[in-house]
Structure formats: structure tokens, C-alpha cells
Amino acid sequence: MEYQEYKEYREYFKDLIDKKEIKELKESVSELKNVVDIAEIIEDMEDKDMLLVFRMLPKEKSAEVFSYMELNDQLRIVTSITEPELNSIIEELNFDDRIDILEEMPANVVTKVLKNTPASERKLINEFLRYPEDSAGSIMTIEYVNFTEDMTVKEAMEHIKEVGMDKETIYTCYVENEYKMLIGFVSLRTIVISDEDKKIKDIMIEDVVSVNTLDDREEVADAFIKYGYIALPVVDGEHRLCGIITFDDIMDVVEAETTEDFHKMAAINPSEDEYLDQTPWQLSKNRIPWLLILMISATFTGGIINRYNYILVEYMILNTFIPMMTDTGGNSGSQSSTTVIRALATGEIGLSDSVKVMLKEVEVGLICGSILSFVNFLRLIFIAKTPVVIAILVSFTMLITVVLSKFLGATLPMLVKRVNLDPAIMASALITTIIDSVVLLIYFGLASKFLPL
């Protein structure tokens, strides 16, 4: 459904509410089948109207819609509905969605939910809530199909029919021993085509790729990308099966991590709120710290120019080439840093490849720098009619600038990664500021050596 359609539905529902045509409203809401679209439609409605439309939804569908809503909109619902209604929604949610929502809810709401939860389930929820926020344990679900190794294929099929409706996925089933330790997995396809008298231990795959409950979510995402599974088992320190993470859950993580990296690369403090949900003050608060840092660090550039004023007094023409030098250096560094940061994020390269990466970027810098400096030399001589000595100085500086910028663009993200920081902070904004200072030092340093003063 397109944005315009969402808008049309909102206006239509609003009109029905204003006319108090509740029966028609309920029929219109029930005609909507896709829960994601319903969530999008009602999120931008006023509190009173949103709540009314939400209450028109069937019980099981309202829980699904709730799970797809943004946090601030979920809070709008939670603060407006009755306690029985809240408990009804929470009960209908998948276990992992329930944990995700409770993690973000205020303490009083969590207390209200847990108060009406059975003791055994309350204990399990509390265990999940204690996992670190960015860990595999915080996003796993306990809704998986498990077998024992001595079960027959026939018994396994009966077990799937019995419990499969309430599970996150049935396409991959996990095999545990008597101590709840993960010893293998078997696909639904294998079960369906196998003889019903065969034992699960005879058809299971023992080479299981798993993640630990305390593994970082980014490591889990890397594992999904590497192996292409639709689900991964999560084990504890003793290799006991604690839960699974499904592909749809990890997609949310990938989106969040990618968004965070984009923000860092643009010198913006990451925020989980949607753009339109943030006030101008919130947006400014996320941007101003880095702008201040970059502005203050740019004073080094001014200091360098001031230091070499005596050269500029003699050769005013050198002023005209400063923007070209700094822009080319910054652009060259940004190209390399962006490429390296992306390769680090996808696992194409690691810290052990540092030397290879730096040497490759130096080679790239030599090729790009030679072409740029040659073209620039011809432009200065034949078009700008610049004195030969100045043209040589500028072109030679251009070559060194590009090579050094490529080298720094590759090296700095690797260094940041080595000290366990996010390489994304060494993206275009920060690296351009660093390279500007370096370029000017090279430019004026060469000028002071080769130009008569």
C-alpha cells in the first residue's frame, strides 16, 4: 500500500468517526487484511481516533497490529486502554515480540503486565529482560520446535502438528539430548520425505551453527548473512538450547545497525525515533555535538593558513588552489573510508587484512592521483596560463594529497576498529576535517621549499 492510500484511509476513517457511523467503520477496518498496513494507517491518527479504530480490530489481529507499531504509538495505546485490554494484547503476542515491547515500556507498565502473568512465565520474562540490550539473548524467542534424538519421524510429525501452530517457525527443528544440550537440527523437508520409522538421530545434521546468548546482535546478523539460514539456535555457556532467532527478527537488527552507521557517517548521534516523530530540538541535539567538534577542529586549518601567511603574501595565486586541494583530498579519503567501513561491516575484510587494504589503497591513490595531477597540470598551463613552477607545485601536491588521503581513508577506520570502536565514526565528515589539515601542511610545506621567497 502506498503513502497516499494510507492518507486516504485515515481521512475516510476520520470522516466515519465524525459522522458517528461506527458500524460502517468496523466493517471498513475488518476489510483490511495486512496488519502492517493497518499499523501504518492508524499511527498518524489523533489519540482518540486511533484508539477507536484499534478497538474495532479483532482480538488476535489487534495484537499483531500493536507489534508493528512504533514505540511512541504503542505507548499512546497502552496509556489509553484498560488493564484487561492490555493483558489481552500482551497474551496474544509472540514471546519475542512481548519481550521487545516490555523492554521499551515504562517500569509501571511492565509491572502492570507482570502482575497478571503466570508465575512460571513471569520468571522466564524476567530472565529475558536481564540479557544485555544488544545481545542475542535479548532478541531470541522460545517458540521453536524441539525433538529428542530417539523420536521417530512419525512421532516428530505428530509433535509438529500438536505444537507447530504456536511456534515462530517449523521449517527448522532442533534436537536436544536429555540435558537440554543442542546436538543437531533437522529440516521439515527432511522429515516429510523420510521413512516414518526412522529415528531423528539418523536423519539430523550434527554440524550446527549456533550463537551464544551474550553474543552481540551484529555478530548474529553477520552469521545470518554468512550462512543464509532462516533461523539460528541460541545456546548458553554450557551449550544448552535457550531459544532461536529468526530471519525477520534479525532484519530489524540489520535495519537498526545500518541506520546507526548512516547517522555516524554523517556525524549525527544515532536515534531510534523516526524523523517525523522528532522535534526540531531533538534533531538539533543529535547533530550539534559533532558540528561543534568539527567546527573546533577546523580551527587547525585556519592556524595552518595563518602560519604560512608569509608565503601567501608573496604568492597570492596559491589561495585560489586551496579549495580544490582540500575538496579533492576530502573526497578521496571519503571514498576509501566508505569502502573500507562497508567491507568491515559485511565481513569482507578483517583486521588481519590491514596491510593488504592499505597497500591496495596506496596503489589506487597512485593511479587516481597521477591522472588527476596530469589533467590538472594541462589545465593550469594551457587554460589558466599559470606559471610552470606553480603548475608543477599544485599538480605534485595533488598527487601526494590523493595518495595520502586514500591511505588515511583506509587506515583510520581499521585503527578505530582495532580499539573496539565503531569504524563508522571515521566516515566522510571527520576524515575530511583531518585530511584538510594534512593537505594544507603538505601544500605549504612544498611551497616553502620550492618557491623563491
TrEMBL record:
Membrane spanning stretches: 288-308, 364-382, 388-412, 424-446
GO CC aspect terms: plasma membrane
PROSITE patterns, sorted: CBS
Domain of life (superkingdom): Bacteria
InterPro entries: CBS_dom, CBS_dom_sf, Mg_transptr_MgtE_intracell_dom, MgtE_N_sf, MgtE_transporter, SLC41_membr_dom, SLC41_membr_dom_sf
Alphabetical keyword list: CBS domain, Cell membrane, Magnesium, Membrane, Metal-binding, Transmembrane, Transmembrane helix, Transport
Domain (CBS) ranges: 204-260
MF-aspect GO terms: magnesium ion transmembrane transporter activity; metal ion binding
Primary location recorded for the protein, binned into one broad class: membrane
UniProt membrane topology term: Multi-pass membrane protein
Location within or outside the cell: Cell membrane; Membrane
Sequence similarity: Belongs to the SLC41A transporter family.
Protein role: Acts as a magnesium transporter.
Subunit structure: Homodimer.
UniProt-recorded name of the protein: Magnesium transporter MgtE
Organism: Anaerosphaera aminiphila DSM 21120
